[in-house]
Amino acid sequence: MTVDRYVSQPALWQSVGRGAALGLAVGVVLELISVFGHTGGSPVLLIGMPVACLVLLQLVRAGVGEPPPPEPISQAKPIRVEYFDRLRQLERRLDRACQDPSVFEWTVRPMLIQLAADRLQAKHGVSVHRNPAHARELLGESLWQIMTIAPEPTSRPVDQARLRELVNQISRI
Known about the structure:
This protein has 2 domains: 7-63; 96-171. Helix 2 runs antiparallel to helix 3, helix 4 (81-97) packs across helix 5 (101-124) and helix 6 packs across helix 7 (141-148). It is built from 8 helices and no strands. The two termini are 71 Å apart. It is rod-shaped. By secondary structure, it is an all-alpha fold.
């Protein structure tokens, strides 16, 4: 060890001093007990106890690791570009569903069915497949028909008001 290390670690020298003082105090107390108790004291206690306490204290101190540095305070997570990309994708999908009935049947309708089923399960613990009567009651007739009746080939696209109504019904589940 270099001299710089001892200078930069005053806590080490303080613990050495405390260990020596504690060991010396214990040694003196034991020596006084042996002198007053006429048991024949040993001067080894005056030397041995401080050394033993010092070694024990240093072993304990060396065994205790330094605490890890505190975690840096994280800033609010920035909104990712992918989130807005997915939002734009959904918006385009809904716009196309209002123009082409097959887009509604193949892309939007399955998404609405999944959203409604997930909300039923999360909010009420009801499965559409296990308890259809209770699910039908909670969903309402128009959502129930969207979820259970097979899509019919139609030449008429769904309008935006109908889409908005379906989304509002799902959010009220």
